[in-house]
Amino acid sequence: xxxxxxIHSASVVNEGRVEKLNILIEGNRIIKxxxxxxxxxPLDTTVIDAKGxxxxxxxxxxxxxFREPGLEEKADxxxxxxxxxxxxxxxxxxxxxTKPLTITQKALEEKLEIASQNMLCNYGFFFGITNxxxxxxxxxxxxxxxxxxxxxxxxxxxxxxxxxxxxxxxFEQSPMVISAHCEDEKRVKELTQKYKEEFxxxxxxxxxxxxxxxxxxxxxxxxxxxxxxxxxRLNIAHITTEKELSLLSSSPIEEKNITxxxxxxxxxxxxxxxxxxxxxxxxNPAIKTKKDRDALRKALREDxxxxxxxxHAPHLLEEKEKPYFSxxxxxxxxxxxxxxxxxxxxxxxxxIEKMVEKMSHNPAKLFSIKDRGFIKEGQYAxxxxxxxxxxxxxxxxxxxxxxxxSPLEGVEFSSRILTTIVNGEIKYADKKIxxxxxxxxxxxxxxx
Length: 448
Ligand code: DOR
Ligand code: ZN
What we know:
- The protein has 13 helices and 19 strands.
- The protein has helices spanning 77-86, 105-118, 134-138, 164-173, 185-199, 208-211, 214-226, 264-268, 274-277, 290-301, 317-320, 337-346, 352-366; strands at 4-14, 17-26, 29-34, 46-49, 54-57, 59-64, 89-94, 122-128, 147-151, 178-181, 234-236, 258-262, 307-308, 383-387, 392-393, 412-413, 416-422, 425-429, 432-433.
- A hairpin with a 2-residue loop joins strand 18 (425-429) and strand 19 (432-433).
- The strands form three sheets. Strands 1, 2, 3, 4, 5, 14, 17, 18 and 19 form a nine-stranded mixed beta sheet that branches.
- The chain is α/β, with parallel strands linked by helices.
- The longest helix is centred in the middle third of the chain and has 15 residues, at 185-199.
- Bound molecules: (4S)-2,6-dioxohexahydropyrimidine-4-carboxylic acid and zinc ion.
- (4S)-2,6-dioxohexahydropyrimidine-4-carboxylic acid binds at residues 65, 97, 155-157, 181, 283-284, 313, 329-330.
């Protein structure tokens, strides 16, 4: 196949604009973007006719759980990165609650080694903070991890940091973005106890947002924010409540030390979905009320929320079929995050430019990612071609997840992800993975 690709006449969404453009790719980079037709490329160039179609920068999902190593019965890097590509996501940052936990440099090196063979999209890995590994975290070689993950509430993996001294030191010294899972541990424990006594094995998932309630989220996010120092870069992962939004500002992302992320699942589902979907939408922090969901959508429009990231967290269906208190938390979601967001665009909840800002531009800005996240000459060609006038039915056969289920089965989206290009290579097209060459480790710009 030619190293040249010419995307002809696409409706390109980038940096706040939608424009009809022609794009030339050589090797792994975009080399030319033009309003007029280009013709100065070799005869054997692969031409993609994008008339009537929309071209977006590939999604950068900064919060995924791919389960490898150690939990491969649930998922692995290959299966889930295929799902990412099918969903228009070209880079992922993966979380440290694997087995072993990614809390030592050695474990991180092993993960990077596995990824270099098996991750089909681009990737970075978070390093997990514990009560005793801060020194190792802040002394990691530059660029080895994409950021630090801090669990202020315990969830799958048990990596709770509950030592205030550790938190203060971390916030003073971390050169990296700290992504924090915020749920007040003490409150969640008390409420769990209370509801276990009240309902026992009979409990239904609809109580999940009462067990892990809004106040637990608010208290923990507030605590994290109050403890940041001048130089701390804190990203509150998966915001779920209206109340937490009062802690956030609408300043441009370049000026923020405290940012926030929301998952498409929390923008799509609400407590009214528990009776039908039960544990399939059990996740931490919990999906809350419709009022919370609508406030999250508004906060996205108003830039209080900066990023969209899935928290893609697959578990086996048989685990999810256990009674409420025994079923694990987490939703597989990466294959449909962009489709959910495009649906919200069609419903008038946000503009497509804003969607691209939150899914591609802002992740690149916040994490200082080198040469990705925009459709620009010189950047890597990480691109996704979508048809806003063609439907996608979510059924079991179409799922790339190793766990082979989704809470969205049966849903029909009114857009379709057609083609996903990573580092200049067409990796997904016509509903199939067409190349299994590995992605690249994401590189970072030094902020000094
Ligand atoms: O629902 C969740 N699932 N929340 C987390 O914090 C962890 C994740 C998982 O790894 O399963
Ligand atoms: Zn997570």
